[in-house]
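Exercise 7.
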Amino acid sequence: MQISLETLRNSPGKTFSYEFTQEAAVFDLTEDGACFDRPVEVRLEAVFRDGKFHVFGSMRTGLVSECSRCLQPFILHLEGQWEDDLPAEAVQELDVIGLVREMYYTTLPLKPLCTEVCKGLCSICGADRNHEDCGCDLEHVNDRLSEFKKLLLE
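Solution. The predicted structure, written as tokens, is:
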């Protein structure tokens, strides 16, 4: 999916807006087995001024993800923005797929969380601490690490 920049070049100072709503597969976002709960919404604005193309874009979608603390599936709402100045002599077309992929991968969190206050799983019995209090002693220290605990108490 490409946008020709010739129209912008012929209309300096005029902002052009583009909107797309496409399935994630169109932008090659499903290659890692990612599952989306809705299409990807893309908005782009571009203007030619001072010998450069100024491009601003935004992307919104929802991704079915797994919480990194409690391992429960949830919908991760992704919103990203992108802004850049492209030299006029270097580009003839705007690669929308490349821009959307860049926005998508930069908005993905390293450790997705279902909520900011997710308590995660008990490290002893594996219970989901968001739904039950298992009563396990979480202060228990592995005997191999007891010498390090002594150092912390000194």
